[in-house]
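Revision sheet: structure tokens.
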Amino acid sequence: MKVAVLSDIHSNHLALEACLQYIEKQGIKKLILLGDYVSDCPNPQTTLDLISEIRKTYEVWCIRGNREEYFIRHNEGYPDGWVYEANTGNLLYTYENLLSEDIHWFESLDNKGVVEIENTEPILIAHGSLTNSRELLYENAQNTKDVLEGISYKYMLCGHSHRQFSYEFKDKIIINPGSVGVPIGCKESAHMAVLEWVDDKWKFEFQTIPYDYQELVREFEESEMKEKANLWMRCILRSIEEGVNYAPICVKKAYDIASEEMEDVDWNQIPPRYWNEAAKQLGII
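Predicted:
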């Protein structure tokens, strides 16, 4: 019995479709989705419609990620200062393309959970950590050790970092399937994982799934995102092309440039002129 694990789709429906084709060929009927379903890539509704179909076709466990939490807060009127042409432009673009039922679905999800399948060990799942969907867990990191030491489950899945890894500590193991939509460590492909219950234990394999990246580029170029969040779009495309997460690199550069001229710079509200300068210095535009 196999279970597919997918995380951090980030509106990349082409990558998701390629993963689903692999899943179908493998005869897998159970899926675990670890959040961050939309943002960063164009046409988020296409991805959400596909996820809706997945939930009808497969046995699925879903939790929300930090991006879903952003959209919930924005919908509630949280003063996040999202504007076009800055690092938050893609979030505003995505939010404008969501339906009220999408927000309601996000609200129905928890940011953690437990997958219980008959005659197998239960699996603890979270997007980031158990207490913070934005916390990054990496192999051999102290916070990862703390999380594993504090749980009673032998197996845990997480996402958020966009990096495939597994790490064992004190007879417990944490597995990150990587990102479907904007993975680190592969070029123009999607990352996912497959779990299989064998000999009374969960074994896993990481998968790298190619897809039509040029079609994704075309969708970017033809979408409103090109006009409303062009710099972020360039960061995401460069990230997918090279397997390097350029978005936070560019944000950090913009923050550093802004800090030379401003006091108390807000990471989430860096003026567009600094964002533009950072992108130029990094060769993104």
